[in-house]
Amino acid sequence: MLDTIREKWPEILNNLKQEYDITDVSFKTWLLPLEVRAVEEDTIILVVPEETVGLQYIKKKYSTPLRVCIAEAIGQTFELEFVLPDQADSFESQPHADISEDIDIFTKAGLNPKYTFSSFVVGGNSNLAHAAALAVAESPGEIYNPLYIYGGVGLGKTHLMQAAAHYILTHNSNMNVLYVTCEQFTNEIINAIRNGGPLANVEFREKYRNIDVLIIDDIEFISGKETSQEELFHTFNTLYDNKKQIIISSDKHPKEIDNLEERLCSRFLWGLSVDLQSPNYETRVAILKKKIELDPNIPDIPDDIISFIAANVSSNIRELEGALTSIVAYSKLTNLPITLEFAKDILHDITQSAQNEVTPDSIIRIVSEHFGISVNALISKKKNQEIVYPRQLCMYLCRKLTDVALTIIGKKLGNRDHTTVIYGYEKIQREIEENDKVKNDVDILMKKIIPG
Ligand code: ADP
Ligand code: MG
């Protein structure tokens, strides 16, 4: 019995966390450290590792939920006894796997705990995509394979894909589920190649071809990357042939992704492709209400203010949430209550600055995010190509999209001379003509910098 309980312990804790809505910090502090030491008749002996105030507290607060979840998982009820390590010595200790390692299967799969179906609001803009994601989550590998979700930025692609992953793992914790961004995926390929030899490649393949559910976010990033496309092609075939689920997202329909191999494009369309649209007013209100309900840091907010935000922020859901959190943050900062007037003021500031012309700072930030490198690296003295190229893109985009003087652009980019900026600008200018990848990078970045 001890073995069974230990084996199911991760699942028990995860269910407990979900069913009782336990925050990450409480979970890590009180529950994760518990060790299943022994089972004596119908009592489970749990060791509370440190001599903290914890023991009594855990006993009081978590005994009942734990017993319920244990009974659910094992099919039998147990009493619980909490002991300190020195008392635990009287119980025979048996070696066991390190549970803290496989406990957080969700984190291991690359998931954000917030992105679940229960926090996703379904509206006319998303009901098809939602239904498809749920169907795939219920029967991975069996119906829509691959599932391809596309739509503009901030409309819930990542949320929906991760919700499917959460669902799958919650119902079958043994499944090997992996969420990666396309950037991570291509970086791993580059590293495998760079770090030498066939062995690294083998490792990469072993990892990606032994997955039950592979989720790749923002696949448009693979545009023009030939080696990555080749590798993805083989990964895709292996998984597909083994009836493993593939879920892909993108800001575009496969046919609209430039420099995407035809064979990949057609495979992306083998299953089902669904799009996410912008939410309408009612859905925006519902999303705000959901967010207020779920986020303990957000106080209750009167309906007229919610309506006001929903009416005025319509571009995408990320901005909608951003507006709400800004209003709350400013109110905390200034100690002013959230009134309609207050919300109007803040929103006015936000929309102003959002519409403000593009600045070198915003360009640098977007380029750094796009390439997954830090702003510090971008403006550093580093001269390796992975940094120089994005830096030159910044120079190009700053000159092209802003009226800011070259000397200032140079300063912003790590105190460089204006002639360096001109050089960078001209280099990219030339390469756009000759190199599709550069052209493509510039196109994507322009869209990110000037959305819509
Ligand atoms: P995308 O990947 O399409 O750019 P995200 O999935 O990152 O968008 O969503 C942006 C933000 O909006 C996230 O915080 C997400 O939780 C939230 N969001 C998006 N769609 C919904 C929805 N239908 N209901 C609730 N929250 C949503
Ligand atoms: Mg996303």
Q: What does this molecule look like?
A:
This protein has 22 helices and eight strands. The strands form two sheets. The protein has a five-stranded parallel sheet with strand order 5-6-7-4-8, sandwiched between helices. Strand 6, helix 11 and strand 7 form a beta-alpha-beta unit. Helix 13 packs across helix 14 and helix 13 crosses helix 15. The chain is globular and about 80 Å long. The structure holds adenosine-5'-diphosphate and magnesium ion. The site of magnesium ion (MG) has 4 residues, from helix 8. The site of adenosine-5'-diphosphate has 17 residues, from helix 8, helix 13 and helix 15.
Global mean pLDDT: 89
Number of helices, counting only DSSP H or I runs of 4 residues or more: 22
User: Looking across the biggest beta sheet, what order are the strands in?
Assistant: 5-6-7-4-8
Main sheet record:
5 strands, parallel
Number of strands: 8
Query: What share of residues are in beta strands?
Result: 5-15%
Give the N-to-C terminal Cα separation: 60 Å
Rg over CA atoms, rounded to whole Å, is 26 Å
